[in-house]
């Protein structure tokens, strides 16, 4: 299991879960078994963007998350987040970049939900801060089979970018028991993963 982040001691921590299982249609087509291994208070980020059975899976994930007392975040679809009574919304970097945000931000204001934003650069972290996101999922921290060949951030740059971000940062991409310990101790207030939590 991935260790709990030391960054939770920072004043700049987000009110969401410090450990997040990220769903993925190819690497984790059925996330329900992995969810059962999480502890109460951990999170589930429902991606499965283009899966034909996303609505059915979303209902099953939401039902299990409630039963296990997990924090549910829905990626890219505020309407689905609202229907499921999810705790928050996660915006892919592309949505945050192109500003298709009014309805999503309106839902967040009305519901008091959490907002996380995917970031892959300092510029994206700046956009997330301007959106008043609760946290940024900064990736890929390390090499990952989700994005083979992608330029990785690495421990040193991750620490520098996280310190300068001006908002809480959650590490994603190649995070496991070993790599999580390679990040500067207070750089990440949370860890998100697929394989290491599957």
- By CATH, the architecture is named Alpha-Beta Barrel
Helical content stands at 25-40%
Q: How much is the average pLDDT?
A: 89
Helices and strands, in order, run as EHEHEHEHHEHEHEHE
Strand order of the largest sheet: 1-2-3-4-5-6-7-8
Quaternary form = single chain
How many helices? The count is 8
Task: Report the top-level CATH class.
Answer: Alpha Beta
Q: How much of the residues is beta strand, in percent?
A: 15-25%
Task: Give the domain tally.
Answer: 1
Q: So, the CATH homologous superfamily?
A: Aldolase class I
Question: Which stretches are poorly predicted, pLDDT < 50 over at least 5 residues?
Answer: 7-11
Number of strands: 8
Q: What would the CATH topology be?
A: TIM Barrel
Q: What can you see in these coordinates?
A:
It holds the Pfam family TMP-TENI. Residues 41-196 form the Thiamine phosphate synthase/TenI domain. Strand 5 (114-119), helix 6 (122-130) and strand 6 form a beta-alpha-beta unit. 46% of the residues are buried. This protein has helices at residues 32-35, 54-68, 78-84, 93-98, 102-111, 122-130, 155-164, 177-180, and strands at 19-22, 43-46, 71-75, 88-91, 114-119, 135-138, 169-172, 190-193. The chain is α/β, with parallel strands linked by helices and 198 residues long. It has an eight-stranded parallel β-barrel. The N and C termini lie close together (10 Å). Mean pLDDT is 89; it is low at 7-11. The radius of gyration is 15 Å and the shape is globular. The chain has a single domain (6-197), classed as TIM Barrel (Alpha-Beta Barrel), CATH 3.20.20.70.
